[in-house]
Design brief:
By secondary structure, the chain is mainly alpha-helical. It has 2 domains: 9-38 and 173-301, Cytochrome c-like domain (Cytochrome Bc1 Complex, Chain D, domain 2), CATH 1.10.760.10; 51-157, Cytochrome c-like domain (Cytochrome Bc1 Complex, Chain D, domain 2). It is built from 13 helices and 6 strands. The strands form 3 sheets. The protein has a two-stranded antiparallel sheet with strand order 1-2. Strand 3 and strand 4 (211-214) form a beta hairpin. Helix 7 crosses helix 8. The chain is globular, with a radius of gyration of 19 Å. The protein binds heme C (HEC) (2 copies). Residues 73, 85, 87, 89-91, 101, 103, 105-106, 109, 126-127, 130-131, 134-135, 150, 170-172, 223, 227-229, 234 line the site of one heme C.
C-alpha cells in the first residue's frame, strides 16, 4: 500500500461520476471538498515534524522502519500480519492525519487502562492489539524490532506534545447520532453509489500486482471480528471523517451510519478470542449495541464460521 492515492485513485477522483455522487449531499455552506480533510473539525493545532527531519543516525533508521511498517505492513511486518491491510489504511497519511486516529496523539496517552483487556496497557501493548485484530495477525513480542520501530516512529511524530493531556485530533471526530436507526438496505445504496467504485462491488478491495490499491472492507482479507472497526459506531466515525477517500465529511451522518452498519453486517475472520460458540463469544466480548457479531442479519448469523483459523 502506497502513501498517496495511486494513479488509479486519482483518475477515479477526477471522474465526474464519483464527484457527482459525492457532491450531491453537499451542504450549501460547506467548504469545497478539495480543501477539507479529516483534520477539519477536530480543532487539531499540532503538526508533526516533516519526514525530511528524520535524523540520519541509528535512531532515524528505526523511525524510518516504523514509517515503512505503517505504509506496507504485509511487507515490513510479514510475520505478524494475516490480511492485506496496512496500518495506513485506517491511520491515514502514515499516521499523521488528525481525525484518523493519528499516532502522535496516541503516543502521548499511554500507558493507559483499557477495558478491552482490563489492564494498564503500554504503547507497545496497544499496538499489539491492532496486529491481533485489525491486521488479523499475531502480536509481535514486546521489544521486537517491529514494535520498537513503530514506537520510535510515534515518539518522533509526537515531538513537543505534552504527555497525558487531551490532544485535539486524537481518534475520530464525534458524529451526530443517526436520526433513523442504521439500516442495511439504505447502507447498501450508499455503498453502491459511493464506495464500490474503489472497494469493489463485493467489498474485497482492488489489487495491482499483488499490492493492495484499495483495501478490502470485509471477507477473509479484512480485519477480524475483534477489531475496533467492527464496532459500527467506530466505523461510522472513521467513514464520516475519512471516506470516500479525499472527500471527508461529504456523506451525511445518516449515510455514514448506514454504510458502516452495512459494512459491519458482512462476514469476516473469526474473533481470535473465540469462546467455542458464537453465543458465548458474543456474551463475553460483543455484548454491545454497536457489534453485529452473533446477530442475525438477513437470515444469517454473523460470526458463525467456526473456530479461528490457526496461523
Ligand atoms: C476514491 C476511492 C475510495 C472511495 C470512493 C472510498 N474509499 Fe475507503 N479507502 C480508500 C483508500 C485508498 C483507503 C486506504 C487509505 C490509505 O491507505 O491512506 C480506504 C480505506 C477505507 C477503510 C479502512 C480500511 C479497511 O479496508 O477497512 C474503510 C473502512 C473504508 N475505506 C470505507 C469506505 C466507505 C464506507 C466508502 C464509501 C462511503 C469508501 N471507503 C469510499 C479509497 C476509497
Ligand atoms: C482496520 C483498520 C485498522 C488497521 C489496519 C490498524 N488500526 Fe490501529 N486502530 C484502529 C481503530 C478503529 C482504533 C481505535 C480508534 C479509536 O477508537 O480512536 C485503532 C487504534 C490504534 C492505536 C491507539 C490510538 C489511540 O489514540 O489510543 C494505535 C497506536 C494504533 N491503532 C496503531 C496501529 C498500528 C501500528 C497498525 C498497524 C500495525 C494499526 N493500528 C492498524 C483501526 C486500525
Amino acid at each position: 500500500m502506497k502513501r498517496l492515492p495511486t494513479a488509479l485513485a486519482l483518475a477515479l477522483l477526477g471522474s465526474g461520476l464519483l464527484q457527482a455522487a459525492a457532491y450531491a449531499t453537499d451542504a450549501p455552506s460547506a467548504p469545497p471538498k478539495s480543501e477539507i480533510n479529516a483534520a477539519v473539525g477536530t480543532g487539531a493545532t499540532f503538526t508533526p515534524p516533516p519526514e525530511s527531519s528524520i535524523p540520519n543516525d541509528e535512531f532515524g533508521k528505526m523511525v524510518k522502519l516504523g514509517r515503512d511498517i505503517m505504509l506496507d505492513t504485509p511487507k515490513y511486518a510479514k510475520a505478524y500480519v494475516g490480511n492485506t491491510l496496512s496500518c495506513v489504511n485506517c491511520h491515514t497519511d502514515a499516521g499523521r492525519m488528525a481525525g484518523s486516529s493519528p499516532l502522535w496523539a496516541a503516543y502521548v496517552n499511554y500507558p493507559a487502562y483499557r477495558s478491552k483487556n482490563k489492564k494498564v496497557n503500554t504503547y507497545e501493548e496497544r499496538i499489539q492489539g491492532c496486529f491481533m485484530y485489525s491486521q488479523n495477525g499475531k502480536a509481535p513480542p514486546l521489544g521486537s524490532e517491529t514494535l520498537v520501530a513503530l514506537e520510535s516512529y510515534s515518539y518522533w511524530l509526537a515531538k513537543g506534545l505534552p504527555t497525558g493531556e487531551k490532544v485535539a485530533g486524537r481518534g475520530y471526530p464525534e458524529i451526530a447520532e443517526p436520526a433513523q436507526a442504521p439500516d442495511y438496505v439504505r447502507g447498501q445504496k450508499v455503498y453502491d453509489a459511493k464506495c464500490a467504485i474503489c472497494h469493489g462491488a463485493d467489498g474485497q478491495g482492488q489489487y495491482v500486482g499483488g499490492e493492495t490499491v484499495f483495501p478490502p472492507l470485509w471477507g477473509d482479507k479484512s480485519f477480524n471480528w475483534g477489531a475496533g472497526m467492527g464496532s459500527y459506531k467506530n466505523a461510522a466515525k472513521f467513514i464520516y471523517a475519512n471516506m470516500p477517500y479525499g472527500m471527508s465529511y461529504s456523506l451525511t451522518p445518516q449515510e455514514a451510519w448506514d454504510v458502516a452498519y452495512f459494512m459491519d453486517a458482512h462476514e469476516r475472520p473469526q474473533d481470535p478470542r473465540w469462546q467455542g460458540s458464537v453465543a458465548a463469544t458474543r456474551a463475553k466480548f460483543h455484548d454491545t449495541k454497536f457489534s453485529l457479531y452473533g446477530i442475525r442479519v438477513n437470515g444469517k448469523l454473523l460470526g458463525d464460521t467456526g473456530a479461528p483459523k490457526t496461523r
